[in-house]
Model the fold of this input.
Amino acid sequence: MHGRSDGTQRLAAARLGLTEVGARSPVRRSLAASMAAAALLGLAGCAAVTQADPLRVNVVGVEPLQGEGLELRFIVKLRVQNPNDVGLDFDGVAVDLELNGKNLAAGVSDAKGSVPRYGETVIELPVSISAFAALRQVLGYLDGSQRDEVPYTVRGKLAGGAFGSVRFSHSGTVKLPGGAGAP
Done:
């Protein structure tokens, strides 16, 4: 408060809730302490949510769809299991599928739903496989190594909910029938 008289400074300070220039009133201090406590409780709540067990997601079905040009399209059914004591509402799903360490398919859906606490739900979403991704997979099998099992990874997220998106990832192997991986 440069260039003001001492009386003007006191009047301005009183309007701002300051008992004297630079000092805070008890009401302001109490309000600041309450806001700090609320922020800490909010952060603790977020920390508790992030410590939840991860969702379990498995591919439980694949059905063909009509493709476009150089792509293959499928409906992928994902079983999402929630091993937590809080349900999860979602408003959108995105997924990426890898086979043998290489990107194979991707899909998104604006599906809405929920996964109940200690419950599960099946989500269907369309995925696309480009002709180039399919070719890359075929070339990977022609490298001469024998395979009885092929590793896969499903990664994605369920969008929405009170705390934003929840990401998931699941890896496993697919057994090939009767030496299908043999050269």
Helices lie at 6-15, 26-50, 131-141. The chain has two domains: 6-50, 56-179.
